Amino acid sequence: MNIETWAYIRHLFLVEKLPKKAIARKLGLDPKTVRNALKKENFSLNRAQKGASKLDSFQPKIEELLKAYPTLSAVRIYEELKRLDYAGGIGILRNYLRSIRKSPKAYLTIHTLPGEEAQVDWGYAGVIAHKRVYCFLMVLSFSRMLYLQFFPSQSMEHFMTGHLRAFNFFCGVPKSVRYDNLKSVVLSHIGSAIQFNPRFLDFSSHYLFDPVACNLKSPHEKGRVEIGIRYVKRNFLGGRSFSSLADCNNQAELWRDHSANCRIHGTTKKRPIDLFEREKPLLIPLPQTSYDTRLVCGVKSTSQCLVRFETNSYSVPFAYARCQLTLKADDTFVYVYEKDRLIAQHTRCYQKHTLIEDLNHYKGLLASRPHAIYFRQRDTFFALGQRARLYFEGMAKTTLNLPHQLKKITSLIELYGKTEVLSAIEHALNYQAFGHEYLSNIILQNRRKRSLPESTGPPCSKVNPELIRSTFVEERDLVIYDNHFKEKDTDHEDRES
C-alpha cells in the first residue's frame, strides 16, 4: 500500500464517514488492510527486515578510518578494507558512507569549452617533517586534467611558480583562470569593483590569460578546484606518510600521472588525460621566455660577508662585504646579484636562524689573514657540540699544536662526516686520548666493524664534492704542451730520415 491509498482511506472514513467494509468494496481491498491503514497516524512502509551485509563486520574499521581521516574517500576506504579480506563491492560501501555523511548542497552544472578556463586554489596539507605544507592545485575545467605541487607557504613567488610549472605541464595556457579572493590575486573586492594585485596582473599579461575573481563567499563558483582539493586530501594525502617535502612532491607526481589524471572521472565518465588531447591544441602557446617568479628584495651585506633573508644568513664573496646587493629567491635556491651579475647562489634554507656558507667566498680573505683559518676551523669543530668543546679544552692542556690538530680534525670531518667524528670524540674522552691520530684510529676501527672501507678516498673522490671545490690546482702555461708536441714531431722526423 502506497501513501496515496493510505491517505484516501483516511479521507473516506474520517471525512466521508463511510464504513470500513464500504471502503474496502470501493477500493477493492481486504477489510484488514483498511483497518490497518486507519490504525496508522503516520504513513510508513512495512519493509522486510534487512538481511546481514558483507560490510557489517567492517563498520568499526570504517568508523576508525573516518575518525582519523574524516574526508577519506570511498576509494581509499575500499583499498584499506580489501587488505582486510573484504569481499563486498564498492557500491554498498558508497551507500553506507552516503547514509552517515551529510548530503552536499546542489548547484547548477556549468559547462566550459576546451581551453576556455582553469581554476586554481590552495589547500592546507598538514604538517610534514615538522613544517606546515600547502598544496597548489590547478584544474582545467573542461578535461579535469590537474596539476598539483606542495609548497612550504602560500607566498606570491610560490603562487606564481605553481602557475608557471602548471602551464609548462599542460604545454599551454587557458584563456582565463578563476580564483577566489586570494591576496596574491585580489587586493580588494567591493561589490563589482575588483582591485587586482599589480604584480599578478603583470604575470597574467605575460602569459596572456584573463584572471577572474569569484564573488565573495561563493566557493561553488570554482567548484571544480574545490572538489579537486577534496579529492587530493582524500585520495592522496589520506592514509599516506611523507619523510620530507621533496618526498611528498615525488609521490604526488607519480600519483598525478598514474592515478589522478588516468582515472574515470565521476562527472565526465571519461579519463582526464583522454579529454586533454582535445583541449591541449586549443590552449594559448607558451611565451618564448618564462616569467621571473622569484621573490626580489634589496639587501646589504655585512662586514662578515653575509646577507640576511628570512632570519637566515647567506655568504657572499668577501670582495662584496658592506655592499648594497639584490637578492632573488625561488622555492629551491637563493641568488645574490651585484647589479645584473650573479655573485652567489645557495640552496634555500627553511629553518630559522641558520648560517649558510660557501667556503669559496672566503678563500682570498683567509689567505690574507692566516689566523682567520685557525678560528674558522675552531668554529667548525665547536659546531659539533659540547663534547667537542670538552675535547678542545683537553687538547689545550697538552703540548699538542692546536692549529695543526684542528686542521687535521677538520679534514676528518670532511672525509667521514660529523657523526663519525663525534662518535670518535665520545670514545676518546672516555680514555682521555687527545689528538687527531687517536680520532682517526677510532674511526677506522669503527668502520672495519661495520665492514666499511678504511678511507673514503682522496680529495678528488666523488664522495667528497666539497673537497673538490675547495682544492686549488696550479694553472699551467699551455706553451709547455705545445713545445712537448713539437719535440715529438722533431724526433719522429729524425727517425724517418
What can you see in these coordinates?
The protein has helices spanning 3-14, 20-27, 31-39, 59-68, 74-83, 90-100, 156-170, 198-207, 223-237, 245-258, 272-279, 363-368, 370-382, 386-396, 402-416, 418-430, 436-449, 465-470, 479-496, and strands spanning 117-128, 131-140, 146-151, 176-179, 186-190, 193-196, 210-213, 295-300, 306-309, 312-315, 324-329, 333-338, 341-347, 355-356. It has a 5-stranded mixed sheet with strand order 3-2-1-4-7, with helices on both faces. A 4-stranded antiparallel sheet has the order 8-11-12-13, with no helix packed on it. It has 5 domains: 3-39, no CATH class; 56-100; 117-282, Nucleotidyltransferase, domain 5; 295-363, no CATH class; 369-470, no CATH class. It contains 19 helices and 14 strands. The model is unreliable at 456-476 (pLDDT under 50). It is α+β, with helices and mostly antiparallel strands and 497 residues long.
